[in-house]
Records
---
Amino acid sequence: MMKKKSRILLVDGYNLIGADRELSSESKVSLEGAREQLLSHLAEYGATSTYDITCVFDAYMVNSTETILDYYGITVVYTKEKETADEYIERFVQQNYNKHLTEITVVTSDYSEQKTIFGLGALRKSSREMWESLRFSKNKIRKKISGDLSQKPRQRLNVDQQVLAKLEKLRRGT
């Protein structure tokens, strides 16, 4: 039996934030708030996709080590000091890509980064395309929820009166 290819979506977080007017404005007020909103969008998308999603944020100017967190099923990576998200993504693709076992898609609008990762075997998706996918996913979830809510509730089960009487006694503790 053939093993199914794992599908990985690597997202350049700040690049995706910068590609959305609302989040870009939010990032000027609160970078943490913009990251939180982006991760929320990605978590919703992850619920309807077959990708293992990793979102990478630069910590280039921050004096720290690499940090990896989980946000509702999304792997969040803050790069180590003096490492850009692009460098992390390139290293990740080099270490994890195998044409027979993995499909890696990188989300970035950085043209030189797209060319580099494509040369390493990964697929590329622009930030604009990713925002379209996120909106489509959100609408898909909204329709599913409204469809579930509009369905009539199931009818009561036909339960024998003796069974109901026994259950009522149990409920009352008598």
---
Amino acid sequence: MDPLFDRFGRLVAWLRGDNIFDPEMNWVAFRSSGNLFSRTSVAWLGPVDGDTIYDRKGRPVALTDGATPDRRDTPVPPPRPASPLMPQRPLATTQHRRPTRPIPVNAPWSDLSWSQYVNQR
């Protein structure tokens, strides 16, 4: 399970396979065909490229330690996937590694906070 950090280096979520969990280990989003979708509404949130999550405008929202994202062209919304089965809830952890260095980004960060991002409709 990998921690996801926002532009300020704050832990905002956990990445486990194709699923995203908030810090309290609630399932909030899932990855399908290189895109992230809301667990509740199945709304498209934006593309995922490696360890970087982008908003609908192609700007990074969150990433794992060591990721170096670039700005992407404005992505095209994909077809809506079928809702996956609810994954098994991970064991809560209080340990996570902070980014080991400032997070370099070769583009402006998204204007959305993580909470605004995962609650898009």
---
Amino acid sequence: MERETDEVIAIGAITMRFLVDGTTTDGHMAMAEMVVQPQAKVPPPHRHDDVDETIRVIEGALTYRVDDEVRVLQAGDHCFSPRGSVHHFSNQGDVPARALVVFSPASIGPAYFRDVANVLGAGGPPDPHAFSAVMARHGIALAT
């Protein structure tokens, strides 16, 4: 099976490359390769009520929080964030972390990450209202 796209979406020091964007899975799932640079600014704790997320670390390590559980995921480890759970990740190490991320269903996909990249790359300080609007449009909410 061929990769659907070679597009790399850069959001600061995080990149997303979608290997499956949902178009060939009838919207059931999307999968991306994510690279998180050391000490990268990462998304704040958030939840998505209608999408499960699974991450598997391939290289490096990610500190991953799901609700009240915090784990350091090494290469080969995975973590499941069921829909509705508050989750967050960071790369506290000295080397880039590379992971596969699966979203099910595929309602969180390349469009969301392109929209976030556009808001954060607009120049000047990020507009929190525009960022919240993008998140809401894609079914994502900041943790309260």
